[in-house]
Amino acid sequence: MKGLYWLILGLSVWFIPTIVFEVASTSGSDKTAEEAVSEIPRELIYIIFPVALAIILKGVLTIRKERKASRKEESKKKKSKKK
Fold first, then answer.
1. How far is CA 3 from the centre of its chain?
2. pTM exceeding 0.85
3. What are all long-range contacts of 15-23, with beta carbons under 8 Å and residues at least 24 apart?
4. What are the pLDDT tens digits along the chain (83 aa)?
5. How far apart, in Å, do the first and last CA atoms of the chain sit?
6. Across the chain, which distance is largest between two alpha carbons, in Å?
7. Which H or E run includes 72?
């Protein structure tokens, strides 16, 4: 279950700053949402993308570890029931 939390956190790190920037850019002007998003500074993207990607990858790896551990646990239970 921890892996799911990491995935949600990684997506939040990516989407929340872009949404905030979009709202801040469009809130006093006639810009559309697409124009505002296209004007996000590249430096911000260069910082946010690797951080979000690293967190999402941690979530994926954690999910894989959890599934592997649950499979081992299930196989042990099946073996003990057969005896």
1. 10
2. no
3. 17/44, 17/48, 18/48
4. 788 898 899 999 989 988 888 888 888 778 787 887 788 888 988 999 999 999 999 999 999 999 998 888 888 887 777 66
5. 31
6. 73
7. helix 42-82
